[in-house]
Amino acid sequence: MNIHGTSGTSRVLARIPQGAPAGIADEDIRFESRGTVLIIGPAQYVTAAAARLATSLRVLACATSGEIPPTDLHANPALMSCRIAAVKGHLGRFSATAHGKDGMVDMGRFSPNRDGFFDLVLDLSSPPLLAMTVKPLGYYAPGTDTFAIDAAIAELATFTGSFSKPRFYHFNMELCAHGAQSKVGCTRCLNVCPAGAIGSSGDAISIDSNLCQGCATCMLACPTGAITYAAPSFVDMHRRLAGILGEMATPGHESLQLLIHEDTDRSVDEYLDSIDKPSVRFALPTIAAAGMDIWLAALAQGATQVVIRLPAGLPESTRKELKAQVGVAQALLAAIGDLAERIIVMEGTQPVASVPMRDGMVAQVLPGISAGVTKREVLNAALDRLQTFLGADVSAMPASVDLSANASFGTVEVNRHSCTLCMACATLCPTGALLSEKPGPQLNFIESRCVQCRLCEHACPEKSIVLRPRLLLDADARQTARSLNKDLPHLCPQCSAPFIGRALLDKSLEIMRDQELLNDEELDRLRLCPSCRAQNVSNF
């Protein structure tokens, strides 16, 4: 399946035969189009398009500029002049609003459909009303280009009836690092979705399945693996990768290149015929379905080089994210002493520079690629395997290498002077990188788990946390908990029981004293543990 291009409707949808049961396939998304189209744009283009579409669809045409002779609204096509302000929705359920004399007008009141929605939209405006790169299914925005208008009209005329598309993704809310307790953390998927299908629903993201067209850009950007491709699944892709490399690699094998490409890319055969090196194909429904976990896992299992072949018409946000992720992966390889060019992006027919094979590197399946294994765990396992094979002397290397701001590897730095060890950061950390340890209080950190989501930074009431993207080069140190801050416990003056950290108690008392919330006697009572405090109050 190729989801790229100017209009996605005919490439993503499958027509459902008339009379077929509602449950066409597990989790499929179903659309119903009754054949009503809203046309928007300049009068001279709208009238011509309306006349052509009226032979097969019910048409409401709105001229946003120029003169158009109005018709009875029951006519087909129905013509009117109005300034459309906004359009939203998807195939079978579009709504529109227009500027009226007394405010905004719901155009649904003029729709031939009883529910007030339009099934299709032909937007001839320049620029189009919907700005997202990947438009909703059923929405066509050819502008005023004659050939593009002809192509849109030809497709629109066929879209009456029932249609379905797959649910392209799986979402595991427990792995999502977007937010917690009204604090916002990771927004990587929201920033890159070319279809505008992802939004925030409080502490987690929400994905509009009707708008999602399976480009997988969100999955590429997601650092935890909360969003994964439905078919092939995360586990299936890694098992297939291990199987392919295992079959191709034998003792004494030549340098092996893994070529990742979309399964509809017809130019792959021509490329493979033009190179003189062994190459293994790894075809996917969409190029962004394979991310850094696949790339590094391939190298850790014997591939000499990974080539990511970008298809034509790739949404710009997908292209940009792919290149950014490749940049981070190359920086990781360089940091551990390998060649950055072992992972490379290929566009068009540009030649790909060869890289030397590693002596003695043979295919070996990474352990634990099964249900329940996360993207982050695979990345860590692949990095550890590569470092072990390269055998670099960590003592002769810098302790860490800084990475770009978009990297999902890094450390958390805590200002020990201002941190009160309130543990808000550890409570909200979605990956278990920050840990509240006892006895203490003590704040510990496991760097290999950190995805730089910024939740801890945003949640810290003292603004004591700063994140720094980097790769800690000591593999053992990355996976070992270390202390970021610790304090001595405050002991109850009456029973000597420890119940709070000294810094947190002092800061709390300071705030209440400055705001004159309590008198001195009441403040002293807060130095008692809860049991003694309750007894003290009852005896008062």
Keywords:
4-stranded parallel sheet; single chain; Rossmann fold; 16 helices; alpha/beta; 5-stranded parallel sheet; Alpha-Beta Plaits; about 550 residues; FAD/NAD(P)-binding domain
Architecture overview:
This protein has 540 residues and is of the alpha/beta class. The chain has 5 domains: 9-165, FAD/NAD(P)-binding domain (3-Layer(bba) Sandwich); 169-229, 2-Layer Sandwich (Alpha-Beta Plaits); 234-390, 3-Layer(aba) Sandwich (Rossmann fold), CATH 3.40.50; 401-486, 2-Layer Sandwich (Alpha-Beta Plaits), CATH 3.30.70; 491-538, no CATH class. Helix content is 27%, strand content 25%. The strands form 10 sheets. Strands 5-4-3-9-10 form a 5-stranded parallel beta sheet, covered by helices on one side. The chain has a 4-stranded parallel beta sheet with strand order 19-18-20-21, covered by helices on one side. The chain has a 3-stranded antiparallel beta sheet with strand order 1-11-2. Strand 7 and strand 8 form a beta hairpin. Helix 8 (292-300) packs parallel to helix 10 (375-390). The N and C termini lie far apart (76 Å). Residues 1-6 have low confidence and may be disordered.
Sheet with most strands: strand arrangement: 5-4-3-9-10
Number of strands: 29
User: Would you identify the CATH architecture of the largest domain?
Assistant: 3-Layer(bba) Sandwich
Largest sheet: 5 strands, parallel
Poorly predicted segments? 1-6
CATH class of the largest domain: Alpha Beta
Multimerization status? single chain
Strand content range: 15-25%
**How many structural domains does the protein architecture include?**
5
CATH fold-type name of the largest domain: FAD/NAD(P)-binding domain
What best-fitting shape do the alpha-carbon axes yield?
Answer: flat
Total DSSP helices? 16
Query: What percent of the residues sit in helical stretches (DSSP H or I)?
Result: 25-40%
User: Given the helix and strand composition, which structural class is it?
Assistant: alpha/beta
Question: Span between N and C termini?
Answer: 76 Å
Q: Give the integer mean of the pLDDT values.
A: 89
